[in-house]
Amino acid sequence: MKHRSIFMVICFLFTVSVIPAFGQTLPSDDPVLRNFWSEAMDSSRLESLAHELLDVIGPRLVGTPQMQKAHNWAVATYKRWGIEAKNEEYGKWRGWERGITHVDLLEPRVRTLEGTMLAWSPGTKKGGVTAGVVILPDLADSAAYQRWFPSVKGKFVLVSQPQASGRPEKNWEEFGVKASADSMKSLRQQISSEWNERIRKTGYRADTLRLALEKAGAAGILTCTWTGGWGVTRIFGTITEKIPTLDLSMEDYNLVFRLAERGNNPVIRVVAESRFLGPMPAMNTIGMIKGTEKPDEYVFLSAHFDSWDGASGATDNGTGSILMMETMRLLKKYYPNPKRTIVVGHWGSEEQGLNGSRAFVKDHPEIVEKLQAAFNQDNGTGRVVNLSAQGFLRGGEFLSRWLSSVPTEVTEHIKLSVPGMPSGGGSDHASFVTAGAPGFGLGSLNWDYFSYTWHTTRDTYDKLVFDDLKNNVILAASLAYLASEDPEFVPRDRRVMPVNSPTGQPTEWPPLREPQRAGGLPPRP
Known about the structure:
alpha/beta, 13-stranded mixed sheet, three-stranded mixed sheet, disordered N terminus
C-alpha cells in the first residue's frame, strides 16, 4: 500500500506539471501566464467590447463626433476597470459628420443603387439632386478635355474605370477554362492601363480632376474603388468643396456605366447629407498601469483607434483596439503591480499617416528613451502569425525568450524574422522604430483582409473571428508581462542596412517623420 501511495503521488505530480492546464500546453507553471489563458478563454469581454465600439459607436473617422465618442468611451471603460487613462490632444482636424446617403436610378428603369458618400464630402441640397450621367471620355490631350469640361454642367460624372467582370479572379481560375481565365485577366489589365492613360491625358491627378469637374459645374462625382472581391468597394476621402463625391458598388457602377455608354441616358437621384463642424480635437487615448520597481521604464501596447467610415472599422482597426483593451484588463486583474510601467496607446489619425503615434513619440521622448518594447497590432482579426525583430540585433533574442514561455497553441503559428528590417511606415510600431526604439508589429493571418475588409464597405462586426482574437489577447498579455519582468533592458543595437542595388549605396534606417497636427483642408463654412 505504501508503494502504491507513492506511485499515486508521483502520478499526481506528473499530471499537474505535464498535462496542459485549461486545455493549453504551457511551458511554465507561472500562475500569471496560466491566469491569462483561463481568463481570455473562459471570461472574455471581447464580444461586448466589440459590440459597444463597432455597433453602438461605429466607424471612427478622425475629426468626427464618433471618434470623440470612442476616445471618451475608452477612457471611461479603463477607469471602470481601475486603470488610469486620459485623452491627450496633439492637434486639430477638420470636423465633419456623415448623414444618410441614398442613390436611386430613375431612368431608364427604377432601382435603388448601393452607394456611399466619401469621407469629407459635401452633401447635396435639401431634397437631393436629380441629374443625368456622363462618362469621362477618352480624348486626345488636356486641351481637348478643357473644351469638354463645360458639357458636364448639371451632370453626374463617372470617373472610375468599368470592370469586365464582377467575379473575383480566383473564381475565374476555379471554374473557367484556362483560355477564358487568361483572356479575362488580360482584358482587365488592358482596361486598367487604358483608363489610367485616360486620366493622365486630362492633365490632372485623379483627385484634382474632381475639383476641375466641380469647377465646371458637375452635379456630383461617381467613383468605384473595387477590391476584386464579391460586392466590396473601398471608401476613402474626397477634396471636392461644393458637390458630393459618391462611390457606387461595382455592380451598380457598371450598370450605370453601361447605360450611359450605350446611349440609354440614365438619370439618378442622390440624397447625401453631411455637415462640417470646424476644427475638432485630434487625440490619443493613453492608459497606464504604473510600474513598481522600474516605473520609469516602459512596456507599450499599441493599436490605432481611428478608421475609415465606409462600414464599422471592424478589422481595421477595431480588432486591434479591443485586443489591447482586453489585454490591459487582464494585466490589471492578474498583474496589477508590474515591474515596469505598462502603457497602452489608442492612436488617432493613423489612416492619414500614423499621426497620433508619431505625435506621441515626438511629445514623449522620455518614454521612447526608456522603452523596453512596444507591441502593435493592426492588420485584421486573424491570429498572429508574423513577428519581426525590426532590425534590432538582439531583438530576436528577447522575443524568442518571451515567446518560449507562451502556450504552444499560441506560438506555433508564429514566424519570427531575425533581425528583420525596420518599418518606416505601414502601422504605428514604425513610429517607435524610426525613433530608434524597439517596436514590434504583431502581424495577423490574412482572412481575405485586403480583398474584403481593409477600408471597405464590409468591414463590420460579423467579420470578427473571436477565437483568433482570444489567442492574440493571450499573446499580447504574455509578452507585456514577460517584457516587464525581464531583468535585462532590450539593447538598441541596429543591424547594418543592406546596399541599395540600383544605387550601390547603403540604405538608411527609416527617419522619424513629423506628424500632421492640423489635418485636412481649411474648415469650410
